[in-house]
Amino acid sequence: MNMKLETYQYSKASGWNSEPDIALDSAQTLLLFFGSPDKPIVEQQLEILRKKFPESLMVGCSSAGEIFADAVYDESISLSVIQFEDVRLELAIEQISASNDSYAAGENLARILKNDQLSSVLILSDGLHVNGTKLIAGLTNILPAEIVITGGLAGDGGDFKETWVWSNGAMSNGQICAVGFYGDRMGVSHGSQGGWDALGPEREVTRSTDNVLYELDGQPALQLYKKYLGDRADGLPATGLLFPLAITDEDEENDIVRTILAVDENDNSITFAGDIPQGSLVRLMRANFDRLIDGAADAAVHIKTDGYKGGPLLNIAISCVGRRLVLGPRTDEEIEAVVNVLPDDTKQIGFYSYGEISPLTNGRCDLHNQTMTLTLIWENLK
Fold first, then answer.
1. Could you report the average pLDDT of every consecutive run of 10 residues in the chain (382 residues)?
2. At the topology level of CATH, where does 197-286 sit?
3. In the chain, where are the structural domains located?
4. Which of 110, 169, 214, 246 is at 20 to 30 A from 326, Cα to Cα?
């Protein structure tokens, strides 16, 4: 039989481009989707899908733009239906109420999924209440280093008000889902690249707590950030996406980039999607249109398909909402750049996120911001 794969798109204006094939429903079928943050647009369709695919595992999250094939859409659902032959699936769910719970949630998810046959893990997480750095640290503290972990943090356009994750037939805030893939026939590869230019001098983080930044070079962080944003400071936190913060990593060829989730005027602090370690060296970044698009293509170039010997391929593209805000009408170009590099006939879905999860070049998994992150999956032929 081998793996079977179909992708579908639903839009508010025209409905489904074709009816999802219920013949693919099975205990080894994954329905993976990314949808508009506008709940009324997607809830009814998701409930219909759940009833049509009662045996399948169905997970997804809200987005800041849904990727389908070689373009980005709004008010839509991008869906893949993957029926594996021998790969086994398992779902783990954690519900958290505060970002401080993120590390423990990661450990709990890992304990549920850990098994000698575990090959890889796909994470979909709430985008506003989770500290992505701590979540990944908890996962990697329990899981063996060779387990590939990828995924992303849900979005809600550029509003930063509410994100959701769907699992077990319900939509929920503060939820983290982890899909475990088991068996030696599971094929997975990944790539992640940025494409931002440095802005201003390198500065030391003189005061921070986890993902909350208070001071740079002894100066209030928010005041300094506003100085660089100028007139755009009034639009924070959304306009902060145009100027992410890069943390110098001497062990990596590319710095780790962090993006803003919230600001606090009372204590002049900035909350990021991942940790900003005190004592680290950081630098503001700004957009370079051509480098962003080239970075997306480079992410695809870095994907290795050494074990692939034929059959369907699904690429899960997760890019940052900040990239979309910068690229504007050129956003489709970075998605097209990925498709042009990947093997012919690769099917693609994805979303614009509040954070991307993927291994670094040294193999250690981490949270990324402002990157194009790709996960290519297949089932090895017998």
1. 93 94 97 94 93 97 96 96 97 92 96 96 94 93 94 89 90 95 95 83 93 94 87 84 80 72 90 89 85 89 85 95 88 94 94 90 72 93 86
2. Elongation Factor Tu (Ef-tu); domain 3 (2.40.30)
3. 4-193+290-379, 197-286
4. 214
Place of tokens 């494409």: 195
Which tokens sit at 234? 């009034």
Retrieve residue 113's tokens: 């999924």
Q: Structure tokens of 322?
A: 């900040």
